[in-house]
Amino acid sequence: MFEKFKSMFETEEKTNSKRYVSCDYVQHGFNVDYEDIKMCCLNCHEGGGRQILIDNYKGERIDWNKFFKQKREMRELNKKGIILERCKGCILLQEKEWDDEDYISFMVFNHWTQCNCKCRYCFTNEQSDFFNQRKNYNMYPVIKELADMGMIRGGGEIGFGGGEPALLPEFEDLVNLLLDCGCDNIRVHSSGVKYSPAVERGLKESKLMLITSVDSGTPETYTNIKRVNHFNKVWENLAMYASKQGENKYKVKTKYIIYPGYNDNKEEIDKFFELTDKAGIKSVILDLEGGWYEQHKYEVPDYLYDLLEYMEEKTKELDMKCVELYDRANHMKVHREEYKKLRENKEASVSDEAGINAEQCKESEQPEQV
Ligand code: SF4
Ligand code: SF4
């Protein structure tokens, strides 16, 4: 699709308007995935996101001139009001004044899959042979080159996903480099099993956010979902990280991914909030399990919407000011009424069909008129 747009772009003049619909990742970002470099990591909107920028990537040196040229071309399309197919419906699209400069301030690191948990919902389960045998590549030299060129700027967002970042041999160096470059909003998604001094530094400087998805309030549920026995260790590490926070006391966040059939009840949620509070953590993130959501997006039962609202209420009770909803939960909140109507219409059309069929049956049971 981009290739098609690209050829359109090449035949037309550049436009100069700076106010238009675009997004931070088109402008100044990328997502390093385990086998390519994508524009972003968003995927649950209509277009599906994750536009590929460099295919089949394994940590090679990047031709930054070519890379930024590609981004400039996308920017020019946005200026003309053209939105890439993959961006359609994305919640990050916004109309505003964009600058015309080449630099990077939004990065997502997802280039490894090794982990010290075995979550049931992990995407690696689908191809466990492939992921178990995969070797990660290093991004430190590539990012160092970008930093040495002065092309990294703070003010955006850096995310570590993975895999467990703290297991990456280059993780400490990479985080320290980004902090040294002035990146002031680094999000590290960690299992919380291994303690990281670089994360501690980022928390002390209030430039890094640690997010740990515990998804449970009891060791039994934790072990059932994560399939490892690190419940107590994780809460100990989280309490330690929380105690190291600098000026901003909302940088350590626990996350609860509602996973239907495993932790979708108020008792588990209440215990999760008790432990979060006890660890000195004042900030949580809520979501619904991605794979499940993809399959049931238009038929999410009411009790799951209610559980999300229940959790939001709990955060208010506990004075947890920084509640955040991740992609699926946000999507649910925005589309609740719309999806409810779709569901009701679907149910109504199913019962109409059942009605018609019943009528047809009755008619066919009538004795033939002679
Ligand atoms: S899918 Fe969304 S975040 Fe990704 S590039 Fe498109 S608009 Fe930006
Ligand atoms: S913590 Fe993340 S990467 Fe590790 S197994 Fe769980 S979902 Fe997968």
Per-chain topology:
Elements: H1 2-10, E1 19-22, H2 24-28, E2 29-32, E3 37-38, E4 52-54, H3 64-79, E5 94-97, E6 104-109, H4 128-133, H5 140-148, E7 152-160, H6 171-180, E8 186-189, H7 197-204, E9 208-213, H8 219-226, H9 231-243, E10 252-258, H10 266-278, E11 284-288, H11 290-296, H12 302-317, E12 324-325, H13 327-365
Parallel strand pairs: 2-6, 6-7, 7-8, 8-9, 9-10, 10-11, 11-12
Antiparallel strand pairs: 1-5, 2-3, 3-4
The protein binds iron/sulfur cluster (SF4) (2 copies).
One iron/sulfur cluster binds next to loops.
Q: What sort of overall outline do the alpha carbons produce when their principal axes are compared?
A: globular
For the termini, the CA-CA separation is 64 Å
Number of helices: 13
Report the helical percentage: 40-55%
Enter the CATH topology name of the domain at 103-349: TIM Barrel
H/E element order? HEHEEEHEEHHEHEHEHHEHEHHEH
Question: Proportion of β residues?
Answer: 15-25%
List all distinct small molecules, including ions and cofactors, that are bound in this structure: iron/sulfur cluster
Report the strand count. Answer: 12
Structure description:
With 370 residues, this protein is an alpha/beta fold. It has a domain at 103-349: Aldolase class I (TIM Barrel, Alpha-Beta Barrel). It has helices spanning 2-10, 24-28, 64-79, 128-133, 140-148, 171-180, 197-204, 219-226, 231-243, 266-278, 290-296, 302-317, 327-365; strands spanning 19-22, 29-32, 37-38, 52-54, 94-97, 104-109, 152-160, 186-189, 208-213, 252-258, 284-288, 324-325. Helix 6 links the parallel strand 7 and strand 8 (186-189). Helix 1 crosses helix 3 (64-79) and helix 10 runs parallel beside helix 12 (302-317). The longest helix is centred in the last third of the chain and has 39 residues, at 327-365. The chain binds iron/sulfur cluster (2 copies). Residues 115, 117-119, 122, 124, 162-164, 191 line the site of one iron/sulfur cluster (SF4). The site of one iron/sulfur cluster (SF4) has 13 residues, from helix 2.
